[in-house]
Design a protein that fits this description.
Order of helices and strands of chain A: EEEHEEHHHHEHEHEEHH
Oligomer: heterodimer
Largest sheet of chain B: none
Radius of gyration of chain B: 25 Å
Distance between the termini of chain B: 42 Å
Largest interface: A-B, 24 and 22 residues
Number of domains of chain A: 2
Largest sheet of chain A: 6 strands, mixed
CATH architecture of the largest domain in chain B: Orthogonal Bundle
Number of helices of chain B: 10
Distance between the termini of chain A: 49 Å
Helix content of chain B: over 70%
CATH class of the largest domain in chain A: Alpha Beta
Number of domains of chain B: 2
CATH class of the largest domain in chain B: Mainly Alpha
Strand content of chain A: 15-25%
Number of helices of chain A: 9
Order of helices and strands of chain B: HHHHHHHHHH
Radius of gyration of chain A: 19 Å
Strand content of chain B: under 5%
Number of strands of chain A: 9
Strand order of the largest sheet of chain A: 5-6-7-3-8-9
Structural class of chain B: mainly alpha
CATH architecture of the largest domain in chain A: 3-Layer(aba) Sandwich
């Protein structure tokens, strides 16, 4: 149901201990994300955005605070993650990778086959179903990762800089493909990136993070009409303004963290 | 048009050169053992080296045929191969199982590591008396001897194989809800396979070493026994037949394992 709260994060904090030194990775994170929203979290590297995502993915524990993903009352898994590059398992074929979540849940065979076929087709990998990842290009591997997450049909999708390692052309193509699949399924997405263009193209709202300790500094709403296309987003005069605003924010953050480190 | 033709010609010439060099390397690989045999034959025939100790290869080959004719040689080979096969399985299967569990659970790893480290340096042959006391002098004790020598390289490589698996794959498995059994079968086992197979290759070589030595010490059959008895009777050509059989089977086994490896690890 739209407009209902899907993800809630309350006063979440994460501290790492490194050789008796305390590193505050995340401090007092509060989020409320609605069902079907596409959220980008943007911040300088080392700001703890990946840590936040890993906590939501159940791969790490928060030090204090809480987070909740609301179940829609079906037996869907709560979340699935699209990892940065190399998340495709090399000893499974493309097909086996895409069906991974369904197989691990021991879903009925028929459902597994159907869903796998559907998402292989959606990302254009049907002819490559039986190949091993070593035979795929970087862009194709990320398509496998995305198909795997959507095929699992989770309540929310978590994406950790999935396009960071791709070249520009491939990145544009995959961003638009992701948008078109997302528009069909209307899943709630949290997408981590350090690319401002990417964030503006994809999201409904952008959360800007500060560097260490990672906090959410600001929220930017992107009201561009959907379906969106890169060309159209680029030519819109409003986006230039948004771009500059975010750019300035990031620059001050980077500079601040530098002076902090020098001290 | 002319330019294109020229370019194609140049590429063709390059391809031909590469093929020639490939063929040359293949010939080199075959020629080294042949070369050694020819030198050996020559030195032995001309008595530059003592033919009583180093009979010429042609004589050894004749001896091989005459020994095979009686059928007794096949019996020895058969017995050795059965010991190797079952001893190998008896060592490899527990080694893989324990290795995977040790790789997956650090508490199990910490418990068993010192035991393995302490037992590994003891040569299996030095344990032969104890093995004979526990398992008797029958076939089973020979299999246990092989199993014990195969066990260590395989278990160590399996643990290393699991620990070598990139952490992102276990994150993926965890995030997509793999239970421990699925994790074992779909992540740990296939992920550890490449390093594990190297351990199995090593184990195979050690199994051959061990069985021959064990048969020389305490057996009245098998290839090792053939070598030792003929040496004692100073039937040197017959002894060389035993050595050649071992070399042959060792080579055969590593070829078979390499074939198995490409079947088991199609994704590398």
């Amino acid at each position: 149901m739209p407009n209902q709260e899907k993800i809630r994060v309350n006063q979440l904090t994460k501290v790492f201990l490194k050789h008796k030194e305390r590193v505050m990775a995340l401090e007092d994170i509060n989020l409320s994300i609605k069902d079907g929203e596409f959220i980008c979290i943007l911040g300088p590297s080392g700001c703890g955005k990946t840590t936040l995502l890993r906590i939501l993915a159940g791969l790490e524990k928060s030090s204090s605070g809480e987070h909740q993903i609301n179940n829609s009352g079906t037996d869907r898994p709560l979340q699935s993650m699209v990892f940065q590059e190399q998340g495709v398992i090399p000893w499974m074929t493309v097909e086996e990778n895409v069906s991974l979540g369904l197989r691990m849940r021991h879903a009925p065979k028929k459902l597994i086959n159907e869903r796998t076929k559907t998402y292989l087709r959606k990302v254009g990998l049907t002819p490559y179903a039986k190949l091993y990842p070593k035979e795929l290009s970087g862009g194709m591997k990320q398509r496998v990762s995305i198909a795997r997450a959507f095929a699992n049909d989770p309540e929310i999708l978590l994406m950790d800089e999935p396009f960071a390692a791709l070249d520009e052309q491939n990145k544009f193509i995959l961003q638009e493909e992701l948008l078109s699949i997302w528009e069909e399924t209307k899943k709630t997405v949290i997408f981590i990136t350090h690319s401002i263009d990417e964030a503006i193209l994809l999201s409904d709202r952008i959360f800007l993070m500060s560097s260490q300790p990672g906090t959410i500094k600001e929220e930017v709403k992107i009201d561009l009409p959907r379906p969106r296309q890169m060309t159209q987003v680029r030519s819109d005069p409003n986006t230039a303004e948004i771009f500059l605003k975010i750019w300035k924010h990031l620059q001050t953050e980077v500079q601040e963290s530098r002076t902090k480190n020098e001290r | 048009m002319e330019e294109l033709k020229k370019a194609v010609e140049v590429e063709k010439e390059d391809l031909r050169r590469r093929q020639r060099s490939k063929k040359f390397k293949q010939i080199l690989t075959i020629s080294s053992p042949l070369f050694m045999l020819v030198i050996w034959e020559f030195l032995s025939q001309t008595a530059i080296i003592d033919p009583r100790f180093f009979p010429p290869p042609t004589t050894i080959l004749q001896t091989l045929f005459s020994m095979s004719a009686s059928g007794e040689l096949f019996e020895h080979v058969r017995i050795s191969l059965i010991r190797i096969l079952f001893g190998f399985l008896l060592g490899v299967i527990p080694a893989i199982t324990l290795g995977l569990i040790m790789g997956m659970y650090s508490s199990v790893r910490h418990f068993f590591s010192p035991l393995i480290m302490a037992l590994m340096p003891i040569p299996t042959l030095a344990m032969l008396p104890i093995i004979l006391i526990i398992f008797g002098i029958g076939e089973f004790s020979k299999m246990v001897t092989i199993a014990a020598s195969v066990f260590f390289p395989v278990v160590i490589n399996t643990v290393a194989g699991v620990m070598n698996i990139d952490k992102v794959y276990s994150d993926v498995a965890k995030n997509y809800g793999a239970n421990p059994k699925d994790f074992f079968m779909k992540i740990a086992l296939p992920g550890a396979m490449p390093v594990m197979m190297e351990g199995i290759q090593m184990g195979q070589a050690i199994a051959l070493l061990t069985i021959v030595a064990a048969e020389m010490i305490g057996a009245n059959s098998g290839i090792g026994y053939v070598i030792w008895m003929n040496y004692k009777a100073f039937l040197i050509a017959e002894m060389f037949v035993g050595l050649i059989l071992i070399s042959f089977f060792g080579y055969l086994f590593s070829l078979l394992l390499r074939g198995l490896q490409s079947k088991l690890i199609p994704w590398k």
